[in-house]
Amino acid sequence: MTDLSNYVPAHGAAPYGQVPALEARSLTKHFPVRGGWSMRKAVVHAVEDVNLVLHRGTVTSVVGESGSGKSTLARMLARLIEPTAGQVLLDGKPAPSSGRAYSNLVQLVLQDPFASLNPIHGMRYILGRPLKIHGTAGELGMDDAIKDLLRRVALTPAEQFIEKMPHELSGGQRQRVAIARALAVRPEVLLADEPVSMLDVSIRLGVLNLLADLRDRERLAILYVTHDIASARYLADTIAVMYAGRVVEAGPAVQLTDRPQHPYTQLLLSAAPDPDRAEAPSLAGAGSPPSLVSPPSGCRFHPRCPFAMAKCAEQAPPAFPVGPGQTSACWLHETPTPKTSATVSASAVEERTTRSAPDEAQG
Amino acid sequence: MSGLLGTQRTESAGRPRSRGDVVLDISGLCVDYGFTDDAVHAVVDASLTLRRGEVLGLAGESGSGKSTLAYAVTRLLRAPGVITAGEVRFHGKAGDYDLLTADAETMRELRWSQLAVVFQSAMNALNPVLTIGSQLTDVLKAHRPDLNRQARKDRAAELLNLVGITADRLSSYPHELSGGMRQRVMIAMALALEPEVLIMDEPTTALDVVTQREILEELVGLRDRLGFAVLFITHDLSLLIELADTIAVMYAGRVVEYAPAAALFRSPRHPYTAGLLNSFPGLHGERVAMTGIPGSPPDLRHVPEGCPFNPRCRYAMDVCRQDAPVLLTLPSAGRRAASCWLQAEGFIAPEPLALPEPTTLGARIVARPGALAADLNDSDPQDPYIEAAGSAL
């Protein structure tokens, strides 16, 4: 699986033409578990053969439901979990497996800001630790460096916030502190695992806008892991949709959400709350994700897929190009001439939709 | 199936009720936590009406008092929560009740049989050591003593079918079901005694979007068939706009706006509603920078003077910092009200808060044709050959 000779980048490597800050190649994670009465050894296939590139100055979003492997992927990229197979490349070179050499370039922001800040320490200690450990305070004094961090995440006046304890801060402010703590080591890559899902609705956008600001101002490569495809469309430059441990579709954010090609992406978009929609969508392929202990053969979506063919159960589809920078891991998009695939697949989807209509009428 | 459901109770003490009648009337409800002067006012002067067959959405952020309101209405509030003022009238098929003065025995009869609740994190509300079947029949044993064992079992199977789960799941334990199925079981249990009002507190928050929509489609279908009213509490306003008929928005314990769903979405009248709507990025069109609402929700121990929203409000005036606005009934095609000085006489509301009301309803969550059939096949999450939606039966 680490043979990279026929490696295909997950999405749009070409337009950037630069070495990605962080790259995942064929990352795979299998968790051994014991299951059943006989205590047989079983394996949860959490992440399977995922390719992902994070470029400087862009936000890449991984979208998926719970159990799709998106958090496992983020943890592998943060080197908290050792992958079963595959490679993590930092600046084009194999990344060190762990340690400060890695953590001062790649930082992880966790989901729950109420659990990720130690309640008995103040801001001065929480933000001072990484500065001290990584020696990144520089010529600024420790206090000035901390205040500078607080200002970068818009916690002003910094003179007041430096004295505060976590319980004095709201959820949004805590998440900003968690981001500031990650920024303290001057990383190149920020991995954010569901950074706003625990926050109140009215303050989520503030944190998302902060991430967008860090991308533009400090040229950070940001991974935004989320279950909310609308927020991914808002923030991200590129989106990778995961289902049952695999990336099923990837591409530029707006293009992918406007013209989803993979049946699962289409299902996900039709299920998302959307007050603007003109008419009620039909959920094609509703149901629940498969067990990852014994995932379906071939394409993992085929048991639910309304367009499943015989081939889908036999062979896992590779990523086929379906538009500029957009790929879909679906046999429906297999075409001999990739150049015209965008138009071909678009009409194929239309055709399929009309074909499936009579079936529904029968039900 | 619905025929069987209708046979259980036929006598009706009150006058005949029809769709659109008020079934639950909450007026001036106040709830405090604590008794002393520094008590926290969790719900302040909340008034809502729930009509038969209606889905009333209650939206608000954490700490806005939406769950406290649900607990107060059902009198399930635990100390130090106290109801300090207000009236809750329940106009049931079997007569009218004042829920806040009713004695414990009356409440015991009303709860579940006429006023059922699906609580937050209902996924964990099932007893892990009892089968689904025994938990369902337990309710019937307590409230329907006239049923024998077989009748109870039949009724439990019927209830599971109602929410799209096959009867063979009666002997399953909760851990053998997926999150979505557990949530369906909770809805089936709430409907076991054919309540007239179903209060749902964040019932789908922990679920994935696909499962969430499936369950909501089912809920709408059940509502259409059985005609109960739903009070649906959630923080997700974008979901309510597709689901609810009427929406009430709460902030710092107060109902700040009340309007039909489409009118609330297209023409909000309160700056908080407008800000909340601007906090949900869309799925269509150009990407535009959105701001959300500056600041954070107030600490209920120190609610700002005047209008509680004034420190975060971009239109705040001097009067907003001094006097709290009252809930004003506004001119509209439907019933709507907002609690904002800008809508009061003598003030001119800025353009974003004075948009014309829409004439169309917008997209609604509707019951899926053949949904039941598809979900019957869905009953085994391990089954690799789940049929596509709506193709079977």
Observed structural traits:
heterodimer, A: 363 residues, alpha/beta, four-stranded antiparallel sheet, 12 helices, 12 strands, 21% strand, disordered N terminus, disordered C terminus, B: 393 residues, globular
Describe the structure in your own words.
The complex is a heterodimer of chains A (363) and B (393). Chain A is α/β, with parallel strands linked by helices and 363 residues long. Chain A is 33% helix and 21% strand. Chain A contains 12 helices and 12 strands. Chain A has helices spanning 70-77, 100-103, 123-134, 142-152, 158-161, 171-183, 201-218, 229-235, 253-258, 263-271, 310-314, 341-362, and strands at 22-35, 40-54, 59-63, 85-90, 93-94, 106-109, 189-193, 221-226, 238-243, 246-252, 320-323, 326-328. In chain A, the strands form 2 sheets. Chain A has an 8-stranded mixed beta sheet, with helices on both faces. A 4-stranded antiparallel beta sheet of chain A has the order 2-1-4-5. In chain A, helix 3 (123-134) packs across helix 4 and helix 3 packs parallel to helix 6. Chain A is globular and about 65 Å long. The model of chain A is unreliable at 1-15 and 338-363 (pLDDT under 50). With 393 residues, chain B is of the alpha/beta class. Helices cover 27% and strands 20% of the residues of chain B. Chain B is built from 12 helices and 12 strands. Chain B has helices spanning 2-6, 66-73, 104-110, 132-143, 149-162, 179-190, 209-226, 237-243, 261-266, 271-277, 318-322, 371-377; strands spanning 22-33, 40-51, 55-59, 81-92, 95-98, 115-118, 197-201, 229-234, 246-251, 254-260, 328-329, 337-338. An 8-stranded mixed beta sheet of chain B has the order 6-7-8-3-9-10-12-11, sandwiched between helices. A 4-stranded antiparallel beta sheet of chain B has the order 2-1-4-5, covered by helices on one side. The longest helix of chain B is centred in the middle third of the chain and has 18 residues, at 209-226. At the A-B interface, helix 6, helix 7, helix 8, helix 9 and helix 10 of A face helix 7 and helix 8 of B.
